[in-house]
Amino acid sequence: MITVLIGLAVLLWPGLTLLTAAVLFGLEMLVTGVFWLVSSFSSDTAGRQRWLLAVAGLLALVAGILCLRAPFQTIAVLALLLGATWVVGGVAEIFHGFGKSGWSVFSGAVTAIGGVVVLVWPVASLLALAWLLAIVLMVLGALAIAGALGVDRTPRKAKATTATAAPGGTAATA
Q: Which of 118, 116, 81, 112 is nearest to 94 (CA)?
């Protein structure tokens, strides 16, 4: 039931869902930055690796602060990164599939086209993905509810006793 309610909330408030995702991403970057920075001072690793961990921690902290400062811009940047990843991955899959698998070429083309769509309309694409997530959550929640309602609630011990008992109430013998 909770899955259906979350799906409904995402469907009704996709913008708020994306904003929440951006804020959670920013918080995750802050936490990651703190852990990496602390690890750089307490790590048993060599000096260069410690410096890299410290720099990565500082960059993650800055990224987290920027995400929290401008969450809607974070959403747009994440959409652009998603689109670019899909385009590059799709093109790579097309080249990988030539001469080997027509399905791989087709899959790569679909992925690349999806990436272009996301790059052209980043925010609208994320809203569509949020709606798709909402529908999937509501369907999965409804299926879970239907499955729970359809379960036979008779205890196993009672089923075993009923299955071996004869119609007159006496036990069946083999």
A: 112
d(CA 158, CA 142): 29
What is this structure's pTM? 0.59
Q: Which residue has the tokens 């239907």?
A: 146
Centroid of chain to Cα 108:
21
> 75 is written with which tokens?
């959403």
Digit-coded pLDDT (tens) for 28-47 = 999 999 998 888 887 566 66
Q: What's the pLDDT score for residue 120? A: 93
Where is 83: in which H helix or E strand?
A: helix 71-97
How does residue 167 score in pLDDT terms, banded at 50, 70 and 90?
Answer: low
Give every CB contact of residue 98 below 8 A, 6+ residues apart in sequence.
Answer: 105
Is 75:123 a contact under the CB 8 Å cutoff? yes
User: What's the token pair of residue 46?
Assistant: 């060599």
Residue type, 23: V
Distance CA 119, CA 137 (A): 26
Tell me which residue of 81, 78, 29 sits closest to 58, measured CA to CA. Answer: 29
